[in-house]
Amino acid sequence: MTAPKQRKQLKHPYLVRSLRTLGFGLILSVLLHILLDASLSGFNLSDTFEMIKTYPIPFLLGILVLLLVYLFLISLIGNLWASTTILVGTSIVVAFANNQKFLERGEPLYPQEFEMITQWRFMLSMLSTWLVILLFLGIAVIIAIAWVLDRYSRKVSAKYYGRDFKYWDRKTLIIRAVGLVFSGVLLFSLTNFQSSDNWLRKAYNIDAQWKDVDPKESYQQYGFVGGLIYSATANIMDKPAGYSEAKMKQITKKYNKIADEINQTRQNKPMDDVNIVYVMSESLAIQLD
To answer: What is the CA radius of gyration of the chain?
Structure first.
């Protein structure tokens, strides 16, 4: 009886494993980018692919950003399927919320609205019961699938690579550290996206002309990821010349002094018991052409 033939060991298992992980992350980033972009059109894939066809460079750059996020997560956590679950679960929730807002308001999710995650109970109360159940059921299914795949991949890894990679293995830690620094630096650089020298802004500008007046158009033309980055880093207003905390205190002191001088000879009664109601409403605004 002959002995079973042993599988030939890979010469560079860590390199092969890293490349396979990046390849998986790339495929995942493409699918999630399509999902997020589709949420801008009520998940109409025809309109989504038409947008991608019209603006291919922003679509590719959005995939790159998602891939960097994936690389950061997997380098930080060290587990393929845990990182995948976080990214996929978050993307599904964001796509769902973005689609709901588009249906109700005709606008995408803006960066400042992500702070509403702390009011998740209030947000869920605005949805129908079956939508909430469907959302949580979908996330639960993703977590279950990820757990099964994680257990199965360990067996496949041991058979294919001839070893079971440990999170704390020296070579694995080195690869994770390099990936964490690389992706972290590039993601942090996106905080300076509005600068004309920013690497991603230069790449987007090949095919994009950003809309300062209506950011919704930026989302619909250049994708959810591009629109989100642009809105998150855009200046709400330009800083006036000479503006500072010291200058504001100086102006306050000046007019407090003037008010004190006027009040010394004021004949009217004090206004301590007077309530002043200030109404600010966009409906009262007048647009001047």
So the answer is: 27
What are the C-alpha distances in Å from 68 to residues 29, 65, 113, 280? 9, 5, 23, 42
Residue type, 152: Y
- Which residues, in sequence order, are CB contacts of 141 under 8 Å at separation 6+? none
Closest by alpha carbon to 94, among 113, 118, 68, 75?
A: 113
Percentages of the chain per state (helix, strand, coil), in multiples of 5: 70, 0, 30
Full-prediction pTM beyond 0.90? no
- 96 close to 39: Cβ distance less than 8 angstroms: yes
Structure tokens at 260: 């004190």
Cα separation of 140 and 88, whole Å?
A: 12
CB 223 within 8 A of CB 55: yes
- The distance from CA 8 to its chain's CA centroid, rounded to whole angstroms, is 43
Q: What is the average pLDDT across 132-140?
A: 80
* CA separation for the pair 240, 226 (Å, rounded): 28
Residues 6+ away with beta carbon under 8 Å from 180: 72, 75, 76
CA–CA distance from 259 to each of 250, 252, 265, 275 (Å)? 14, 10, 11, 19
Q: For position 179, what pLDDT does the model report? A: 94
Instruction: For residue 22, count CB atoms less than 10 angstroms from its CB and return exposed for 0-12, middle for 13-18, buried for 19 or more.
Output: middle
| 49 C-beta neighbours (distance < 10 Å), count | 14
Residues in the chain: 289
10-30: pLDDT as tens digits: 567 777 778 888 999 999 999
**243 — alpha (psi -120 to 50), left (phi > 0) or beta?**
beta
Where are the extended beta strands (E) located within 57-135? none
